[in-house]
Design brief:
Order of helices and strands: EHHEEH
Shape: elongated
Number of strands: 3
Number of helices: 3
Helix content: 40-55%
Strand order of the largest sheet: 1-2-3
Structural class: alpha+beta
């Protein structure tokens, strides 16, 4: 059985019938959208999605910094610039 990363779930059929009701009842929490009783998508508030995307971007930047930290450095004088 697939793991569901939400405390609430709804079938695609029920979501199609009344998406506004599903969003209101979720009260800002993620909702797993099920297709044949398997998660096919997650409905999350825009604010939550934006926060997740920001964290992902930060993570990618940290990884880039870590990779570049191992590269050879070049000493530069501000006067030379």
């Amino acid at each position: 059985m697939d793991r569901i990363f939400a405390s609430a779930s709804v079938s695609i059929s029920d979501l199609k019938k009344n998406p506004s009701r599903v969003i209101l009842q979720a009260e800002g929490a993620p909702v797993a959208i099920l297709n044949h009783n398997k998660p096919s998508a997650y409905l999350v508030p825009a604010e939550t999605f934006e926060a997740v995307m920001e964290k992902l971007e930060e993570y990618e930047l940290v990884k880039l910094v870590e990779e570049r930290a191992e590269e050879a450095t070049v000493k530069v004088s501000l006067d030379d610039l």
